[in-house]
Amino acid sequence: MARRLSKIPHGVAFPSDQKFLAAVDRYVEQELKKAGFGKDVIADVAISVSEFVNNAILHGNRQDESKLVRLELYHAPGQVTICVEDEGEGFEPDKVASPLEGENLLKEVGRGIFIAKMLVDSVEFSRGEKGGTRVKLFKKLPV
Amino acid sequence: MKFKTDEKDGVVIVTPKGKILDGSDTNKMRDKIEELVRIGARRMVIDLGGVPHMDSSGIRILVAALNGLRKEGGELRLARITTKVEDLIAITQLTGQFKTHPSVEEAVRGFSSPN
Ligand SMILES: Nc1ncnc2c1ncn2[C@@H]1O[C@H](COP(=O)(O)OP(=O)(O)OP(=O)(O)O)[C@@H](O)[C@H]1O
Ligand SMILES: [Mg+2]
Question: How close B55 comes to chain A (CA, Å)?
């Protein structure tokens, strides 16, 4: 079960394969635990990260294992910022359809970004240096 | 996540265990449910008592099972749903689509009662 995540400054990088999702999940949970976050918040942030990492693997890098997904994690007391970046072609997040509308409600897919946004305080999309998608999510400890 | 399937009184019971994240196990569970419906399952309970949390792929499995069974005139019930999963179903506004029960036994019994 060795799914090796390579260390990068402030985070990890790994090839575009879904088999790394579990290791990423454990990594995020461990780091947030060290930072003193509570169980519930950790669960929410980890799911949110998992949605973006999965999108980076599937939609961004199209499971091309020569392309990496990078995850950076920064925390200050009571808050955490996590960035997920892929080497894909980017997309227009504003054009993603709402999963709640009409027949979308019972579609099998199309909920990832929506769910991820609901579980953290803010999500920002931008383009990485090479044109891929960079997602920055932010969560404050609830008081 | 690992899962198993059983049958009890003509009801198929699917029991996943562990956090549901996207990947091969999730696809296996989705395919297994599809196959069970194809070979005739019409009453199904998914026991979520061992699933502390899930991502959108978990919702995908539940919606696929719901749609697949409805299409064949069958029915899906959920048992022992945990708080985080219940929250996720609420966030995605699917609460009204799923019948939920505090135990597998009650879910199974639900098929022969009016609601
Ligand atoms: N990193 C990315 N690169 C390119 N396109 C993306 C990226 N992330 C998301 N998208 C696009 O946005 C759409 C919506 O993403 P979202 O995660 O909400 O749903 P999904 O991945 O299609 O399904 P689900 O997450 O419910 O399994 C995707 O189908 C894809 O077209
Ligand atoms: Mg997605």
Answer: 6
